[in-house]
């Protein structure tokens, strides 16, 4: 998209910071691009979106989002193709999921033109911040929060939608280890588990901290009702390969409808792999591991894409997964996803959207 063609008002920075960034060594989520998108909802209607130089937002200690957690966000990426073009991956799915989250948190829907036109204009303006396709990607963080200055438990009357971007390398530098946690829950039926709201992640930080202290990368969550069915990791959806069949938990209202998850299911089914979306208990995983039938386990998410799981800690025992070179399913899923995103392979699904 040509920035001049956009209906988004653009105020460009006077001095780019791009020259200060080493694209060969990018810490995840700590280096931000030159610009940000802002749109305000007040008086029952949305104002015109603007792109401004990246910087602080004005807010007061009475901001409703700080007190009552009325805030949702998304994670998405822009890529550079093998011929140098900037593209987005399934942005409309992020738009739909953000409004699903907003509805659960009693927030007005974001208009498609603000979300899609705003993001495409922002990425077009900061396209030089997208790393070379073999070095990383540009992570996009849309965030949407209550903006009333008010102390009282009710839905806000005003809201702010913002998008920041940052060049990133890999989220995980190595295969991840997971610790099954039976002392805490992430979500329950009727709760906010399927919404990408800020509170879901705030409540997960203590269990995550405890898992890291025990020598694991992340938590593997179980269901709240019976404490036996696998749900998701702290940052990813999860897949297992048992007896040559791919198994992943269903979207039952307590886990996030991952866009990478949906993409991997489609890719694997189209390549002839049997994929079962069904409840899977941690005891089934334990039995499959003990009997040598657990062939692979991997996580999927925007930040991680597809990441191998090296071991799962449960009931005082570490289930060590097979060596990565023996795992065809997760390697094929990762390779196919990367090739489609970067234009090295045809996109038969219409997932890749040019900027």
Oligomer designation:
single chain
Termini gap: 5 Å
Largest sheet geometry: 10 strands, mixed
Helical residue percent band:
10-25%
Number of distinct helices: 8
How confident overall, as mean pLDDT? 95
Task: Report the count of strand segments.
Answer: 19
Order of helices and strands: EEEEHEEEHHEEEHHEEEEHEHEEEHE
Unreliable spans are none
Radius of gyration: 21 Å
Based on CA inertia axes, which overall geometry fits? globular
Structural class category: alpha+beta
Share in β-strands: 25-35%
Question: What can you tell me about this protein's structure?
Answer:
The chain has 355 residues and is of the alpha+beta class. Helix content is 23%, strand content 28%. The chain has eight helices and 19 strands. A hairpin with a 3-residue loop joins strand 16 and strand 17. Helix 6 packs across helix 8. It is globular.
In short:
This protein is an alpha+beta fold. The chain contains 8 helices and 19 strands. The strands form 2 sheets. Strands 1, 2, 3, 4, 5, 6, 7, 8, 9 and 19 form a 10-stranded mixed β-sheet that branches.
List keywords for this structure.
355 residues; ten-stranded mixed β-sheet; 19 strands; 28% strand; nine-stranded mixed β-sheet; 8 helices; alpha+beta; globular
Write the layout of secondary structure elements.
Elements: E1 9-10, E2 35-42, E3 45-46, E4 50-53, H1 64-68, E5 71-73, E6 76-80, E7 86-89, H2 91-104, H3 112-125, E8 137-146, E9 159-168, E10 176-181, H4 198-202, H5 205-213, E11 218-222, E12 230-233, E13 237-242, E14 245-248, H6 259-270, E15 275-277, H7 282-290, E16 294-301, E17 305-314, E18 317-320, H8 328-341, E19 352-354
Parallel strand pairs: 1-4, 10-11, 10-17, 14-15
Antiparallel strand pairs: 2-3, 2-4, 2-9, 5-8, 6-7, 6-8, 7-19, 8-9, 11-12, 13-14, 13-16, 16-17, 17-18
């Amino acid at each position: 998209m040509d920035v001049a063609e956009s209906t988004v008002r653009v105020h460009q920075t006077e001095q780019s910071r791009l020259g200060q960034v080493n694209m060969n060594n990018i810490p995840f989520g700590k280096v931000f691009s030159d610009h940000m998108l802002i749109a305000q909802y007040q008086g029952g209607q949305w104002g015109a979106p603007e792109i401004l130089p990246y910087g602080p937002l004005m807010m007061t200690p009475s901001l409703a989002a700080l007190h009552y957690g009325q805030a949702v966000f998304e994670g998405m990426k822009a890529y550079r193709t093998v011929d140098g073009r900037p593209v987005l991956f399934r942005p409309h799915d992020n738009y739909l999921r953000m409004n699903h989250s907003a509805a659960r948190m009693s927030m007005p829907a974001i208009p498609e033109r603000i979300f899609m036109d705003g993001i495409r204009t922002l990425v077009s303006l900061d396209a030089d911040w997208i790393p070379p396709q073999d070095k990383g990607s540009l992570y996009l963080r849309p965030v949407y929060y209550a903006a009333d200055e008010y102390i009282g438990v009710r839905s806000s009357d005003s809201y702010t939608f913002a998008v920041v971007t940052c060049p990133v390398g890999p989220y995980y530098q190595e295969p991840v280890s997971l610790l099954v946690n039976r002392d805490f829950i992430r979500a329950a039926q009727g709760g906010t588990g399927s919404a990408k709201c800020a509170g879901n992640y705030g409540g997960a930080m203590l269990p995550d901290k405890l898992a890291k202290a025990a020598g694991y990368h992340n938590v593997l969550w179980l269901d709240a009702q019976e404490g036996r069915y696998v749900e998701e990791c702290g940052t990813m959806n999860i897949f297992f390969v048992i007896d040559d069949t791919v198994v992943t938990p269903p979207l039952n209202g307590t886990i996030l409808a991952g866009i990478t998850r949906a993409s991997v299911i489609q890719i694997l089914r189209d390549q002839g792999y049997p994929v079962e979306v069904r409840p899977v208990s941690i005891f089934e995983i334990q039995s499959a591991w003990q009997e040598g039938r657990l062939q692979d386990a991997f996580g999927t998410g925007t930040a991680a894409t597809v990441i191998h799981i090296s071991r799962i800690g449960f009931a005082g025992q570490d289930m060590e997964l097979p060596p990565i070179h023996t795992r065809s399913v997760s390697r094929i899923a990762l390779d196919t996803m990367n090739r489609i995103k970067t234009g090295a392979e045809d996109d038969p699904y219409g997932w890749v959207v040019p900027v």
